[in-house]
């Protein structure tokens, strides 16, 4: 079976040849099947965002390749949509216009766009805020606009950089359930970065564990707990076991980082 997304031996070097050169990713490889929900976990600064941006086509690797359905990617967009860590909203556009942005070329009528956009604004709990501007929103609300915008283009692959980090605990659980629903009902493929081990185990079919920088995927951990998952899932003994495997990995990598003198 062809992977929907495959990356092979990716190397990313920022400011190559300059004194401030940073080797962000080294020989990072992975394969993702359609309908999977993959989380990426690793020590701070190990190259997680760089990996996601490379998968989106925003960052060009110095070597290595990224393919979707066997075809090399040429840039952002197409079957992918990204939720950025810093939200990346357009400040001069309202919430509605931000969410509608990706639909300009969709061929939908004005009314169809309105219904579609409002569906996703409601999904993220922002009904009533559609005419507000980003500066009138809290950090968590801006993050939800970013999520609605990515979901609204209904991409095959959703790339999400710490999508729930600025969102309060209660809304976060609702958003997590939405992601699960969309993944299961619509067979979307989701790849997301998180610092929350609990979130990674709860949502993921597999967790990619990364080494310290230059990052590569050192462990590909299958979370063998059937979907749909509910809050009770969290009290299963295997849920706790997966959490401790990830925690021990992170502890070992951060210790390595300390020994290298990089913290
Ligand atoms: N555009 C850039 N130019 C130069 N260096 C960069 C750039 N983007 C990232 N870096 C560096 O590359 C390394 C990896 O950064 P990246 O943001 O991918 O890590 P991360 O694992 O997502 O970090 P965090 O967990 O803190 O969000 C870091 O040392 C960072 O400073």
UniProtKB/TrEMBL annotation:
One of its GO terms (molecular function) is ATP binding. Gene3D superfamilies: P-loop containing nucleotide triphosphate hydrolases. PROSITE patterns: ABC_TRANSPORTER_1, ABC_TRANSPORTER_2. Residues 5-239 form the ABC transporter domain. It comes from the Bacteria. Keywords: ATP-binding, Nucleotide-binding, Transport. This is ABC transporter ATP-binding protein. It comes from Paenibacillus alginolyticus.
């Amino acid at each position: 079976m062809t992977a929907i997304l495959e990356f092979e031996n990716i190397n990313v070097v920022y400011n190559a040849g300059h004194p401030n050169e940073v080797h962000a990713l080294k020989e990072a490889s992975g394969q993702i099947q359609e309908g999977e929900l993959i989380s990426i976990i690793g020590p701070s600064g190990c190259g997680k965002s760089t990996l996601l941006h490379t998968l989106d086509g925003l960052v060009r690797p110095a070597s290595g390749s990224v393919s979707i359905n066997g075809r090399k990617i040429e840039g952002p967009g197409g079957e992918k949509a990204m939720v950025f860590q810093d939200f990346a909203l357009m400040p001069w556009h309202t919430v509605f216009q931000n969410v509608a942005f990706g639909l300009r070329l969709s061929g939908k009528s004005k009314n169809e766009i309105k219904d579609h956009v409002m569906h996703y604004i409601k999904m993220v709990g922002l009904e009533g805020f559609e005419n507000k501007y980003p500066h009138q929103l809290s950090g968590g609300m801006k993050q939800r606009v970013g999520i609605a915008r990515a979901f609204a283009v209904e991409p095959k692959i959703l790339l999400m950089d710490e999508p729930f980090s600025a969102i309060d605990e209660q809304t976060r659980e609702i958003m997590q359930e939405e992601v699960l629903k969309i993944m299961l009902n619509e067979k979307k493929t989701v790849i997301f970065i998180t610092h929350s081990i609990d979130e990674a185990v709860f949502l993921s079919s597999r967790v990619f564990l990364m080494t310290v920088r230059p990052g590569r995927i050192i462990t590909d951990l299958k979370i063998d707990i059937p979907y749909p998952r509910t809050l009770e899932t969290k009290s299963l003994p295997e849920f706790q076991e997966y959490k401790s495997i990830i925690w021990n990995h992170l502890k070992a990598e951060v210790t390595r980082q300390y020994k290298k003198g990089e913290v």
